[in-house]
Amino acid sequence: MATRIVVLPPAGGIGAKGSLGRDPRTRTEDGTGMTHETWGQVRGELLKAVGENNFTAWIDPIVFDRLDDRTARFHVPTNFFGSWVSQNFSDVILRHLVSAGIGVDRVEFAVVPGLRARAGNANAAPSDAAPRAEVPADRPAAGAVRTGTQDLPGATLNPGYTFENFVVGKPNELAHAAARRVAEGRDVTFNPLFLYGGVGLGKTHLMHAIAWELRTRFPEARILYLSAEQFMYRFVRALREQDTMAFKQIFRSVDVLMVDDVQFIAGKSSTQEEFFHTFNALVEEGKQIVISGDRAPVDMEELDARIASRLQCGLVVDLHPTDYELRLGVLQHKAEQALARNPHVRISEGVLEFMAQRISTNIRVVEGALTRLFAFADLVRREITIEMVQDCLSDILRSTDRKVTLDQIIKTTCDYYNIRQADITGSSRARAVARPRQMAMYLSKTLTSRSYPEIARKLGGRDHTTVLYGVRKIEELMSVDSQIAEDAEILRRMLEA
Ligand SMILES: Nc1ncnc2c1ncn2[C@@H]1O[C@H](COP(=O)(O)OP(=O)(O)OP(=O)(O)O)[C@@H](O)[C@H]1O
User: Ranges for the AAA+ ATPase domain (predicted)?
Assistant: First the structure.
């Protein structure tokens, strides 16, 4: 039985323009109906409206079935295809049907698997009934940006993540400058631009800022921003629905591809493979790629070496941990915005400086601390003072005070297991030494932001994959061996005390 994907006209869409029912061109179903020939004519108009790429990929494969009950019914080859067309092209199809005088209020897609052959025919021209329209010149030179963003499956952009709201300081000035350059959308000089840094330092903010800026400068550009997780999800879905052609078509037809948190696909072999091919296809066409990750490509242990090396070919810039000036700048900027929203809130002198001094973690935490303070001050109707900060943010201030170093981890672990430090950094594989060493690796990875290679160096210059293995081993053991789980918990408490 065919799956039905019903699409209703959007509120305020076509109705708002011509008020569907009252549009003088809209004849009743009895009056006109719709034939395959009319559909052929509408297809010709759709080709002009959506551009050749979209047309061949999404409109050409759909087959008109019939019109009844003011519903134009089409066949589509797969579920994925149906949802895609319904989400992205139903409005434009409906609009053109109405313009052609068809009495129609909705379009509906039903999956008919046998249609696949047509879907694969990427270069098919519109049917004979539709005079082949001139393809609009929507392809500027490689490197520039081109048509239509609405049909892309990207993530939603945060309206607050703009360049105007991004505070620049020493730790992020290079990343900011590179992002600005890419957002100008001129020559593709840094390809890819790879932004990396620890949590909450502004990678996503900068990615969104680039996308907003490009959208403003080039409204027609096809900019696709999504997380690596979404990329994987879409790829897996396309595999499941045997619709990888459509997937490739989407991802290879963009002008700018932006993938956030690329570390997510490290170790996911088929997704990496697809990502690699997408990446290459776009680079070859001179399309801009922007990627973010939590580490430098070389430090992503499970990232396919070919991808890592590709990523290195562009510009790799990191967002450094914050410094006092940057934190203060962010606090001042965010406080200004918060004061505009809550004009009755007062902040005592020295509060922001105190916070910038004492909260030395990432910007997300700094921002969260300020939000919490404003909410509190608003609630109790008191001025924000340093005492209020100490009271209200005691947990954040405490956790910032606590900084665990690799040296402390090694020392505490050795004391706990009663072994010598030379043993833990040495080469012995005896269980009595190897297990504490793995525990130290695990603690280093979970309590500090050190990378695998850094931990490996500290623990006697071993290979970073040994550390990766050690961390995994302890994680595995913790779920089956309560003694190991207890050891880890006690050590964590000792180190964080
Ligand atoms: N330089 C900055 N100026 C203003 N706000 C910033 C700046 N850097 C980060 N922020 C804010 O800090 C918060 C965290 O930033 P963001 O989500 O971009 O971090 P991230 O590096 O992507 O973190 P994660 O690795 O956890 O995804 C956001 O609300 C962002 O607006």
Answer: 189-322
